[in-house]
Specification:
The chain is of the alpha+beta class and 698 residues long. 29% of the residues lie in helices and 27% in strands. The protein is built from 16 helices and 35 strands. The strands form nine sheets. Strands 13, 14, 15, 20, 23, 24, 31, 34 and 35 form a nine-stranded mixed beta sheet that branches. A six-stranded mixed beta sheet has the order 3-2-1-4-11-12. Strands 6-5-9-10 form a four-stranded parallel beta sheet, sandwiched between helices. Helix 13 links the parallel strand 23 and strand 24. Helix 12 packs across helix 13. It is globular and about 80 Å long.
Length: 698
Amino acid sequence: MQDKVFRIGCDIGGTFTDFVAVNRETGETSVEKVLTTPARPADAILTGFDKIAETQKDFMSRSELIVHGTTLVINALIERKGNKTALITTRGFKDVLETRNELRYDVYDLQIELPKPLVPRALRFEVTQRTTKEGQNAIDLEEGELAGIVEEIRAQGVETVAVCFLHSYANNEHEKRVGAYLKKHAPEIEVSLSCEVLPEINEYKRVSTTSVNAYVKPKVQQYLQEISQEAANRSFDGDFFIMQSSSGIASEANARQFPARIVESGPAAGVALAQWWGEKSGLKNVLAFDMGGTTAKLCAIDNGEALVTNEYETARVYHFKTGSGISINVPVVDLLEIGAGGGSIAHIDTLGLLKVGPESAGASPGPVCYGLGGSRPAVTDADLALGYLSAEYFLGSSMKLVIDDTMEAIRRDVATPLGVDVIEGAYGIHNLVNENMAAAARLHLAERSVDTTSISMIAYGGAGPVHAFGVARKLGCKFLLVPRYAGLVSALGMLVANVSMDTSRSLKVTLANTSGEELENELQALQHAAQSSLPNVGEGGVLRFHRRARMKYVGQGHSLEIVMPDVLSTPSALEDVWQRYQDEYKRLYGRNDADVEVEIETLKVIAEIVPEHDFTLPLLPVDGTPVEAAIKGTRMIYVPGRKEMVECKIYDRYKLRVGHKFTGPAIIEERETSTVVNDEADILVDEMGALVITVGKE
């Protein structure tokens, strides 16, 4: 029997599907990029497997693990290409999906537009039943009404059903009975129960999240089944895991049951790698910075942990307006997304001011420099004009950029209206998009009480390393790290994430009216539920639990998440919980009110399998090669500190070795991206192959 030594990370993006395969014994790493196949996403995955197999003998049969991140869920929601869905709910509550939380995301917009519900009104069915918020059965379920509903949903061609009753987080008996009825009388229809998907308070968020889960469930199940079967046909018989939005990975079975949890799997994997790389580099406070063609994403990693939120929206009517999208209340890495990417278009507004984004040229026609018909200058065009990108080596020479049309577009649309030359106009675009990202990051970090001068930045993505130095300087970061495989970080991040499962339940009790024993029993039940959803823990890992509680002052609408003690049965346990809440509240808001009662809204447990042997990457060789051997030439680039174009050395990243040290200005090129240091700064290659750049202040 052959040893299973390969671990595969696979991430589907909008344009490319990325692969990283690591031999855990030798450290040998294979990477591959293939074009994404939107009509049949699984095709690109299988193509990538086959390409790696061309150079690795018996690759699939020798692979122990595949971790996959996909855009399937978010694309299905944005494009409205999920399955035909029905909703069964408490009588009188069929319109919760439209009344939402009754908040207006723009109070001055008289023509405000909200996303259409995933379930049309004709497919929302009411059932006579009622459970109180305390969990009492006020009106018993009229099970006889279900026969007519089943007949109707079959006649309408419904493929999947969401069941969400009022206060089912407190008592799930009625939902369970409906689930059992549907399984018996309509076994061909998929069912999502809110008491399983999201057993938490807040009616709109619960019904919205459950509807999302139901809407994509058959599509995800078919997709995962196809990949699993085709991988098996290629002799793969290892474990198949899916990246979750929380930056943990789930078994295929869990992903099939709760597809709403994988809506942001790609970006979450990038954050997972940034957290892992920061830990390996001794950096506990990190800002993960991912910039692509359309948007930039940032996530704060505080004291070694990526911040996670339960507040998430997708398919927004207005992309960057909170409240204009579909609510999904699942654990998601706390990402800030802004309309700043390589394709963001620059223009002069009605006041004669330069603006960049959020409108994007996208991949088609793309920036002017792509030569695919784009006519309006974008950020990538400015980067090319400034010398930060190579017209000949873009995407490893697989794509040639057009410089003349680019310069003319910047001159026409930006430089001439502003009364400056084309280089000044190009730098205005580059600098403004950096300032937009830095300003958004400052606010994002301030809201989380994170000091920008106490953090380092880890940059990745196609455009991230091009702009990271400028953004880091504006923020006052100490160091900037650009990891190896910076253009494939999400695929690599899937190999460092741990298998995990989140469980939660709303309680709504004050600390004065509960006991440590009662809370401990609830947490133990959640631990058991989370553990039962994980694969069996064998020799390859250790099971750990992370216990949390969302708490607030009585009467407040917003809660804070607090780490709970490992044991709550001691006499002083509740005092400890109270003090933890007070300390966190004061840390965030600068004050607290010890005289107001504190209540627990929701308990939460994260079960995690921590591998006994940590993931490692092979170290770069130390062979005495001088750093000059990595210089591939020179190019004129714009240096803002000197306000002129300066001849700059261009380094081939693949020829850099551990300990190589040089100073900026410098450009370090690799196939998927370029790292731009457009001013004086020290650059060091560490033993893991990361570029460690001492940033300094702007």
